[in-house]
Amino acid sequence: MSEQTRLSVFKTYKLYVGGKFPRSESGRVYEVTDSKGNWLANAPLSSRKDARDAVVAARKAQGGWAGATAYLRGQILYRVAEMLEGRRDQFVREVADAEGLSKSKAAAQVDAAIDRWVWYAGWTDKIAQVVGGANPVAGPFFNLSTPEPTGVVTVIAPQESSFLGLVSVIAPVIATGNTAVVIASEKAPLPALSLGEVLATSDLPGGVVNILSGKASEMGPHLAAHLDVNAIDLTGADADLARDLEIAAAENLKRVLRPRTEDFAESPGTDRMTAFLETKTVWHPTGSLGASGSSY
Amino acid sequence: MTSPFEYAPAPESRAVVDIAPSYGLFIDGEFTDAADGKVFKTVSPSTEEVLSEIAQAGEADVDRAVKAARRAFEKWSALPGSERAKYLFRIARIIQERSRELAVLETLDNGKPIKETRDADLPLVAAHFFYYAGWADKLDHAGFGADPRPLGVAGQVIPWNFPLLMLAWKIAPALATGNTVVLKPAETTPLSALFFADVCRQAGLPKGVVNILPGYGDTGAALVAHPDVNKVAFTGSTAVGKRIARTVAGTDKKLTLELGGKGANIVFDDAPIDQAVEGIVNGIFFNQGQVCCAGSRLLVQESIQDELLDSLKRRLSTLRLGDPLDKNTDIGAINSEEQLSRITSLVEQGEAEGAERWTAACDLPEAGYWFAPTLFTNVTQAHTIARDEVFGPVLSVLTFRTPDEAVAKANNSQYGLSAGIWTEKGSRILAVANKLRAGVVWANTFNKFDPTSPFGGYKESGFGREGGRHGLEAYLDV
Amino acid sequence: MPTTASAAAAFADVTASESTLRRFLHGLPGVDAVGLEARAASLGTRSIKTTAKAYAIDLAISMIDLTTLEGADTPGKVRALAAKAVHPDPTDRTTPTTAAVCVYPDMVATAKAALAGSDVKVASVATAFPAGRAALPVKLADTADAIAAGADEIDMVIDRGAFLAGRYLEVFEQIAAVKAECGDRARLKVIFETGELSTYDNIRRASWLGMMAGADFIKTSTGKVAVNATPANTLLMLEAVRDFRAQTGVQIGVKPAGGIRNTKEAIKFLVLVNETAGADWLDSHWFRFGASSLLNDLLMQRQKMATGHYSGPDYVTVD
Predict the structure, then answer these.
(1) Complex ipTM value
(2) Which domains does chain B have, with CATH numbers?
(3) Least C-beta-crowded within 10 Å: which of A1, A225, B156, C97?
(4) Confidence (pTM)
């Protein structure tokens, strides 16, 4: 037997849209390098048409995902954590390469990201009780406020925190029944594209999360102005882009989450969920049991 | 059909309210002229009588008012919540004491019937202040973390359809959470806000905590664009809401918008039919239909369309239109000439597009701005009157065959503020309510409001909620 | 003009069997209690002043079934009541008479004699009033007695037990039998005892049941239970007669009874009539108040409108 180094098999990184793994319709790719400038892979350079297709997929999936029981959504989010745990080493490597971290620091990021899925998995069937409830109106009416998902949310993922940050912005959006069109970190998209592979095998219905690699500055304006998108998370946009996108988002009054200083290692609150929830209030008469006169 | 039982006129006395010939801006606890000396007139829409001459705030006045509010913020936000609460309780009580005066004033300036200002607007105004007064010292327990902080100066712009009630929806939560306020009332209805300034004075509210700047759209635009405003709250049209959203883009200003609607009122064949007719009438003719959450699209199951429309027309024929100060008036005046011409042109468009118009037979007064209750049949989703907000006493009647179709049509709108469901079947209420994309769903009732009940829209009807615990969030740094 | 008999024929299919009748009654539109009561309350805020009030007071007086239904009733009491019905206000002869005097069957003859020469009718409760717990022959005999003694109107009670047990056809047939006994000799008012039927849905069903069975009037209550006439249950019955006429052309009267004690309340009921059934019902032939103490309050208000100062109980007669 000859002593020969085995030539490894490269992975072709592809988009994750509607539960499938397409290349960019534009046929474009761009070079992704590690923090030292070494070539890692070619990633699809998504176009506005890819973004448009992702919105179609997200819209198609939204009703079913919002209509699934909160318990089922929790099970699926937990399943994502399970699947990630199994591919932990791969993500540690990709995060280390992407962010120039040591193995142990990258591992801490991946572990925190896995735990974040678990955190949000538990929230799916609790948030309605925390932010909704019965309102004691002054009249013979039963009055109940419940949170509902806003709909299709465009997410501009953080540029620096390629995986923990990414998970921290996707999970709260979908936990409550929204679907997401995610623009991954432009310079470090590989953990995001690999996450698509995990989501595809976690019982998450196709289209609930759609992941695009490329330029937020190219796709963002189209998604921000898109009339079938209901909200936009600007976390990964710089100040100028964020302002432009917020202006464009006014076209159909999208709910806008502005960029802010954020340490993703810290325990999240509920505000990333509530940013993409609507409150619906339903009234119904109660009245007395019999025709005794007047409930007033 | 004329009845031998004609109700004699029963006008509420105008003597309870004393309107001065002119009013200034209310800045830093004082009434003051506009820097450039501009004034405008406010008229009574039912008679076109000039009620008073009002100072018109310009950019310099906006700056003065925001500075006053900023100065007041430091002390106001540092007050113990229990002290802020007591100011708000005082305001609530003074409004109750002066409610007849304020109701008559509102009817004069707005044109809506005294029955509504007396029985709906004013009680809700007082209740709103009472409700938020109680929150002022309980913010730690409101679910926004320990010690949530106020934002600072709130710039608030309100519409003319419920002038004092919209003021209450804006000011009560803002003050309870420790913010200070610069509020611009609508140019056609500035008076009740200026009387509210006097309520603040009676309550001993510190100077600068509430500032009132009457003016037109440009005053509002200057207010929301002012760099030292931390929070913008607007109720009004969707078009202006979008402009404001663009104005505050890229800033730290927190924004809430309460905008237009095209509410669907869905009547199933098993509805409690007499109550449904009342709900439809209340849904579109309350406040002459000048309500953002009006049930302006009636979606009736085709199998009961004829029966329902007969009942509805019979009922509309009993509505009494006329002097808003008459206690028996059901339909008052349209708020302004401009609004009347908008209603008129949309109705003409409805006729031109082939919808069938029916208008209740009633005499319209000679002076003032009036529009008789009107409904359109043979309307489809493609008609302008089924899509655009008329903001007037005009109902579009559409039909559906199945619950799925009803929901699809109800949701087929850029708006998502309100909806109604009429059926005796409980499971259908819950299923349909669940599918409707609207912030407020009234089942077997319509147009009910309460300070404890969050109100606000989906989609282009705006974002944020007013009322209830939810209403605090718009004014807290959370 | 269509008659109650022609209306009965129109519903022959419906009343053919227990099951068809049940299906029809249970198929009537439901009533939302809060909405109904809100509508009644909102009409109660109408402000009736000056000429409209004067008109309403006289109309209300003319609609009263001046009632005494006590175990202690005597001929003297009934004669006094009759005198009051004919001349409600002895100081003002322009005061209208009441519509009727309402008594037990054994007092009909006395009332009839006392009212001779006036237009005031004699109404008699019958059919084992107020509980209605007697066999049909007894109820019919009770009715026949009253008519024989000269009653112009019969106020029967339905068998609430049968109604609540779902035996609608039995109730229907009893009303029809009493109606047959009345024939052309007396108008029939059917009392539901709405307080015992308890729900608005039941009141709507009972209204249709009574109208289909030939009632000339539908009446809320006996005045003998805790809840009698309310604005809401009267509004509901006015909707029923309105809808019944729209469907059959037959006009049926409505009589709220018990609990209406003052002018303000009575005027609210007239507003309900005016804005629900319409002006056609603003006549003592189509709308009645079953009341006793109401009359004196109406008279005091009437005096106030005539003189400009408030009247007092010493200035109206007590009988």
Answers:
(1) 0.97
(2) 14-259+458-475 (3.40.605.10), 264-443 (3.40.309.10)
(3) A1
(4) 0.96
